[in-house]
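Inputs:
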Amino acid sequence: MAVCLRLFIGLVLLVSGFEKLISPYQNFLYVIQAYQMFPSWMETAAALLVPWVELMVGIFLVLGLWLKRSLKGAVILLACFIIIVGQALLRHLPLEDCGCFGEAIHIPPQGIMVFDSLMLLSAFWLLRYPSKVKGLSLDKYFNS
Amino acid sequence: MALNKQKITGLIVGFAIGTVVVVKLILTNSPGVVMDSLVARTQGPASAKVNIVEFIDFECPACARGAIELKEYLARYPQDLRVQIKYFPLMQMHRHALQVASYSECVSRQGKFWTFFDSLMLQQGQWSQLVSAQGVFDQMAQQAGVNMAKLKSCLSSDDVSSTIMSEKALGQSLGVRSTPTYFINKKMVVGSKSLADELTHDFPSVSQ
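Outputs:
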């Protein structure tokens, strides 16, 4: 169960990051601008950096490498996403789609709040029980 | 060679970066967007310093905001700007997207595109809420001075949807994922906020 959850969270972040990286960064910049939360320079920086962070955290979670750090990274990412989408919902911003997975999947902001919250809770739970999460991981191989 | 944790981490990071770079190179092998000879959907002189190709979904709210912004620039700097519209209907998100693109294409074949386009953008908030907007599009076309019999026959032609879908395919090959996406002198800009930033900062001769 713990390993499956780890793989699931890792795959979601990996696919999400990869999809954004292979398309021009301006598309993700447009998504960030829709949340009307940051100054222009920060929006551009986030559009360039966040997909790489998502991809790397996703890969490390799937492979089970640096697991504790990767899980902490996932918690920080998911918490940020929840705050950003949450403030947009509270301000009734006209968002048709969360923009989280590029053009691959369309999820409304309300839906992604539930999804991200469940993933965040799962990541917290995995952080509390590190021994359970180490199955099928490179960390286990290197520590053995 | 014994692989320790640091080495394998470096290999994985390198492999991930390499994969992204290679896939990106494969996907963006296009030479870039160029203005074609579509006179009906082009506004501004061929000698303009700033050429903008816009991929649009007529039902997207940001497209309407961008259209109003561009119209102001076109009015203020008629010699400096040239704008060409290309279709990028987002059928999954907007119920009228394909229908309104078909109307636009048929209207443009009668040389009345820009009048129709202005009405569409100004009244988008109203018609986008309707379950069926065909009556509104007919009325706008009529007001633009379109021959309605020709329009109806054009709307039933397969050629219209193939034109729309081939422009959408062109956009996709250029990395267009959402609307409005502009290519300002071939530089990609997405959204009305970035359009305003670009016109203000990157083209000072136009914004002055």
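Remarks. Chain B has one domain: 42-207. The interface with chain A takes residues 4-5, 8-9, 12-13, 16, 20, 23-24, 27-28, 61, 92-93, 175, 177-178, 181, 188-191, 193-194, 197 of chain B (CB under 8 Å).
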